[in-house]
Design a protein that fits this description.
Elements lengths: L2 H5 L6 E3 L8 E3 L9 E4 L12 H6 L4 E4 L11 E4 L3 H12 L8 E6 L4 H14 L4 E4 L4 E3 L2 E3 L8 H13 L4 E5 L2 H5 L10 E4 L7 H4 L2 H13 L6 E5 L5 H4 L6 E6 L6 E9 L2 E6 L2 E5 L4 H16 L4 H10 L8 E4 L5 E5 L4 H15 L5 E5 L9 H11 L3 E4 L9 H9 L4 H4 L2 E3 L3 H11 L5 E5 L6 E4 L2 E4 L2 H9 L2
Parallel strand pairs: 2-3, 3-4, 4-5, 6-10, 6-11, 7-10, 11-12, 12-13, 13-14, 18-22, 19-20, 19-22, 20-21
Antiparallel strand pairs: 1-5, 7-8, 8-9, 14-15, 15-16, 17-18, 23-24
Length: about 475
């Protein structure tokens, strides 16, 4: 693309050099620069891209987008100064990759819990109905069935637009994307046009980054503020923050609820660890999901499908064929009748939701064991809350390592135990080694008991002192069960 055409999407403060030149790539990581690229210097939370301008030029960058011009301007290099490269990078990337969201319908899902399930099931549903689709999720990205590994929930603007551009080029009609609070706050979704947005819920999470719950909430709200007039916004009416999300949106608002009147509503008629029989908007449907929290997720999926033009009856038929997402209330059974459930629950609210579901189905016909921990180098304030939820809703609890990252696992466990009374600690043991903790629960549980292994879900690794090791809760459970 010609540089003059590319930089027109944002108004520069100043341009130094020739804009009549071809740009064949755009990067924010100087290490990825190739001959003929545009390097966008970003001021990140850890590093300042401006310090790598010289390195980018050395590797072949033809143009530099920056907030501050370097003192040493190189001949043959064009410098485009912007007030904020964080604001500019999204529109620049969108323009370079052919404005992919003008060529397909992009649906964003945001909230603390449920994003992966909703985005993934929508992707699977629309693929099953014969549409070409893309998916951007925590677990994996997909371009019409082709897996593209992911490192984070919402990629950086360059990676994201490159991915969406590939989807559009492949003929995808729809793309479903998890929208994290980080991605909104850091303008990673800048320049994208969403056809719809879904709000799941809001509970404590990521306060290590956002500092306050209000900042976290406002980041989510900003996503809905930016939705265009022709889009839809579907919110969870059972969460008091739902109404806040759409206070200033231009989108068409619809609600869903499991408790009160809403545009999309449902109630549980029957449930077991195999699935539920629901009444959804007056129609009965059997699904392979378990738990009230999943009823909310399914309502959001149903609502989005209807808003995208799918007939309500067809949407229900498709829902009945959908399967839970890997690592989300994933059930494993031993030969002697013990049930293990692997779930990504890593916030106090998510842990409570999963345990409430287990106890509703279990109905005191067996004991509930919980194996859980908390991530290192993340919000320390939720650690005692995680332990409290586990103890209040379980018969026995084993507190162990999650992803300790660069922290001492025992320090994290101590932070969790600090939230418990002496009486509560009587039904808790701590085992630092996660493999040993899971094996212990599997060995001690009796037929009819349920073991919840929470926190890592789909993840097949553990990060210890910054080193990633293979670790899969599902594999460890199957080994312990001898299956």
């Amino acid at each position: 693309m010609e540089l003059a055409q590319l930089i027109n999407v944002c108004r520069p403060v100043r341009i130094v050099g020739d804009t009549e030149k071809e740009i064949n790539g755009i990067e924010i990581d100087s290490r990825q620069i190739k001959e003929g690229n545009l390097f966008v210097a970003m001021r990140g939370t850890q590093v300042d891209g401006h310090t790598y301008i010289a390195k980018a030029i050395e590797l072949g960058a033809r143009a530099i987008a920056c907030e501050e011009l370097p003192s040493d301007l190189q001949d043959g290099v064009t410098y485009i100064q912007y007030e904020s490269t964080e604001d500019a990078v999204g529109p620049l990337a969108t323009s370079f990759y052919g404005n992919p969201t003008s060529r397909m319908k992009l649906i964003g899902v945001t909230g603390t819990n449920g994003k992966t399930t909703i985005a993934t099931v929508l992707y699977n549903m629309y693929r099953r109905m014969g549409f070409k689709c893309g998916l951007c999720s925590t677990v994996c990205n997909y371009i019409n069935g082709k897996a593209v590994p992911t490192e984070c929930t919402t990629p950086d603007p360059i990676t994201l637009n490159r991915l969406l551009g590939q989807m559009a080029d492949e003929g995808c009609e729809y793309a479903f994307m998890e929208v994290s609070s980080h991605s909104v706050a850091q303008k990673r979704i800048g320049g994208l046009t969403f056809a719809g947005g879904i709000f799941t819920n809001l509970t404590r999470d990521h306060l290590d980054y956002h500092k306050t719950f209000e900042n976290y909430r406002d980041a989510k709200k900003a996503f809905f503020d930016a939705l265009p007039k022709g889009a839809f916004a579907i919110i969870n009416a059972d969460d008091r923050n739902g109404a806040v999300m759409v206070q200033n949106t231009k989108a068409k608002v619809r609600t869903y609820s499991t408790r009160s009147g809403a545009d999309f509503k449902a109630k549980i008629l029957e449930e077991s660890f195999e699935g539920m029989n629901l009444e959804m908007n007056g129609k009965e449907v059997c699904v392979q999901f378990v738990g009230r929290f999943n009823v909310s997720n399914l309502l959001a999926i149903y609502g989005a499908a209807v808003m995208l033009g799918t007939e309500p009856q067809e949407a229900l038929i498709q829902l009945s064929a959908m399967k839970p997402v890997n690592g989300r209330f994933e059930t494993i059974r031993s030969k002697n009748g013990v049930t293990a459930i692997v779930d990504y629950a890593h916030t106090p609210d998510a842990l409570k939701n999963v345990l409430d579901t287990i106890n509703e189905v279990l109905r005191h016909r067996g004991q509930c064991w919980t194996v859980c921990g908390a991530g290192g180098n993340r919000d320390k304030g939720k650690r005692p809350l995680m332990a409290q939820e586990a103890v209040k809703n379980s018969d026995r609890v084993i507190i162990t390592s999650d992803n300790p990252r660069f922290e001492d696992p025992q320090d994290i466990i101590n932070d969790m135990l600090a939230g418990l009374t002496e009486k509560q600690r009587q039904k808790v043991v701590s085992i630092v080694d996660r493999r040993e903790a899971i094996r212990t629960a599997c060995m001690m549980a009796q037929p009819g008991d349920v073991i919840l292994v929470a926190g890592k879900g789909h993840e097949d690794y553990q990060i210890v002192q910054g080193v990633k090791h293979h670790f899969d809760d599902h594999e460890v459970i199957c080994e312990a069960f001898g299956s």
